[in-house]
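> call design_seq(struct)
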């Protein structure tokens, strides 16, 4: 009887505990492989330990928040313990033969990412992960063997691959340590922009990613950032963000250079790093040379240029400030990065000469010697008033991942203005929805009225941005074709979109996108065409935006040294190519800042206007 009761109790107990569905999702974090488990209602720590064959204490050790108890919907990381073979394990001849029938062998090259390998073979990222269970997708090693399933080669497009790569990153973030996040590097991201995004210094970014260097920063790489929403900024980062005036703290009365002597200019650029050429700054240098040629032919001024490679090294900058050609220069252009600018500004104050920051807007250094070509980010949306006119319906379109920096800009711009939000979800066209089911990919409902609309796309990756812009354009076309109205809307664009390689730019015209940018060059304008021809003749290459900026730097500051410098360039407007510059100073010992942001308007008739 006792045995019968005991058996009955066990049966009742088993019925009261829901069966645990073991996760098939696995991620690597700091070299350890984990299952990503989503807690269901009624699950217990004991039941989880039994299902995954690990101790309760080990689960607790890897999930500190469990001290507050299991919560339905929470994500847990549970260490895997199953033995797994690796592609490099010794194989028999029959093993090799069988593998070669099914797989192609790829050996990881220097700096290569799993995403890049997937693109190379056009194979789904998830397939590569499944076929290589021992690899850490975010950290491949040189020469590592990767199995590529032959039947899947050529069966995946770039959007699908990126979506899967983003999905893997999202799984990482779902179980990341509090205060950290993982991020897929996008084309155009720099060490400096990523460190600013995370609210940390470049040195901290390097340490956080096991010595990652700027030369290692490849599009598609997964790196670790400190999440600014949940982690307190470091003391060092706080100190760096606080403006300070360095040097002698006094005003400088610049003197115009005599036309009887050549103007000595020192140009400090990170042309190489660890021996690897940096094409962006080489392009800047070439543009600067063309600018000097125009200075000579248009104004008759002679310039003696000394070029120095800073090697992206603060120690190298200190050495250069002792060089005779730098110490005797009457104008210094560069260095590029704020963390290397201080010794140069000190020298400029000592010698009473101007120093130009051609690309970065300085937030820490303040000096009367410093001229900044990049405008103040706080003035970015000064020309957006008409977009926020009374009666305009403003909608912020969100996806699963949000560009937090852009969101902060937009919310600051909107202030107390009323706005709506829309959560966009992509549904593949092959998916059949129920008759009464709303398609979250269809943006037609946002346009089905006669109001004037302003849309802001908050997505953080190229694929989602492309999908949303295409959905808006499609909705507009369908509504007009069916005579249901004439939608009137504009889209505030994120300048990061211009770095994306796979967005069809015609979609900007169809959606009447407006960008607020520090630089603009319309390649079909005559002035740009003339510059492009001169650049191609001189260097047999097509110029980049860096070349245009280099030209602008030479054409503004070299002629100004013979006249306008005596007036600190104030009340002067400069437009060497297409970007406009106007320099102002808030107080006698602060920087001379360019205040001209460019507003670029894309129109539905496929024209562009600039304000």
């Amino acid at each position: 009887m006792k045995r019968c009761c005991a058996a009955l109790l066990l049966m009742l107990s088993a019925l009261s505990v829901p069966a645990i569905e073991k996760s098939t999702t696995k991620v690597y974090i700091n070299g350890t492989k984990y299952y990503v488990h989503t807690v269901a209602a009624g699950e217990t720590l004991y039941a989880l330990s039994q299902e995954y064959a690990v101790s309760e204490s080990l689960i607790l050790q890897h999930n500190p928040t469990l001290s507050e108890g299991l919560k339905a919907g929470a994500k847990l990381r549970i260490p895997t313990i199953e033995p797994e073979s690796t592609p490099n394990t010794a194989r028999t001849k029959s093993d090799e033969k069988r593998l070669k029938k099914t797989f192609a062998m790829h050996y990881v090259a220097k700096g290569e990412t799993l995403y890049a390998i997937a693109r190379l073979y056009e194979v789904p990222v998830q397939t590569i992960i499944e076929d290589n269970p021992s690899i850490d997708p975010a950290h491949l090693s040189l020469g590592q063997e990767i199995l590529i399933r032959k039947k899947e080669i050529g069966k995946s497009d770039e959007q699908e691959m990126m979506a899967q790569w983003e999905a893997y990153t999202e799984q990482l973030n779902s179980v990341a340590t509090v205060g950290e996040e993982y991020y897929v590097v996008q084309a155009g991201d720099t060490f400096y922009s990523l460190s600013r995004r995370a609210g940390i210094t470049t040195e901290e970014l390097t340490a956080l990613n096991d010595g990652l260097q700027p030369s290692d920063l490849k599009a598609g790489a997964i790196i670790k950032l400190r999440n600014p929403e949940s982690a307190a900024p470091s003391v060092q980062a706080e100190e760096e963000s606080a403006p300070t005036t360095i040097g002698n703290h006094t005003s400088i009365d610049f003197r115009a250079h005599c036309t009887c002597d050549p103007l000595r200019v020192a140009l400090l650029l990170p042309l190489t790093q660890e021996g690897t050429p940096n094409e962006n700054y080489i392009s800047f240098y070439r543009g600067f040379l063309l600018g000097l040629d125009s200075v000579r032919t248009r104004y008759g001024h002679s310039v003696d240029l000394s070029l120095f490679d800073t090697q992206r090294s603060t120690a190298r900058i200190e050495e250069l400030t002792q060089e005779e050609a730098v110490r005797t220069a009457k104008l210094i252009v560069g260095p590029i990065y704020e963390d290397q600018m201080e010794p140069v500004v000190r020298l400029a104050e000592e010698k009473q000469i101007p120093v130009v920051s051609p690309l970065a807007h300085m937030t820490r250094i303040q000096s009367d010697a410093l001229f900044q070509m990049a405008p103040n980010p706080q003035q970015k949306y000064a020309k957006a008033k008409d977009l926020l006119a009374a009666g305009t319906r403003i909608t912020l379109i969100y996806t699963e991942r949000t560009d937090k920096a852009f969101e902060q800009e937009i919310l600051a711009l909107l202030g107390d203005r009323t706005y709506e939000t829309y959560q966009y979800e992509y549904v593949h066209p092959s998916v059949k929805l129920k008759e009464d089911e709303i398609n979250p990919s269809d943006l037609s409902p946002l346009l089905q009225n006669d109001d004037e609309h302003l849309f802001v796309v908050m997505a953080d990756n190229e694929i989602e941005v492309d999908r949303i812009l295409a959905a808006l354009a499609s909705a507009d076309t369908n509504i007009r074709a069916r005579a249901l109205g004439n939608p009137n809307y504009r889209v505030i664009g994120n300048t990061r979109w211009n770095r994306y390689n796979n967005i069809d730019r015609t979609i900007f015209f169809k959606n009447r996108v407006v960008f607020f940018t520090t630089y603009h060059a319309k390649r079909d304008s005559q002035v740009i065409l003339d510059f492009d021809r001169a650049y191609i003749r001189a260097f047999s290459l097509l110029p980049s935006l860096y070349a245009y900026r280099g030209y602008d730097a030479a054409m503004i500051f070299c002629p100004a040294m013979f006249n306008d410098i005596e007036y600190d360039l104030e009340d002067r407007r400069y437009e060497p190519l297409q970007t406009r510059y106007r320099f102002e100073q808030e107080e006698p010992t602060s920087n001379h800042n360019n205040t001209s942001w460019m507003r670029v308007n894309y129109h539905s008739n496929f024209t562009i206007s600039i304000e």
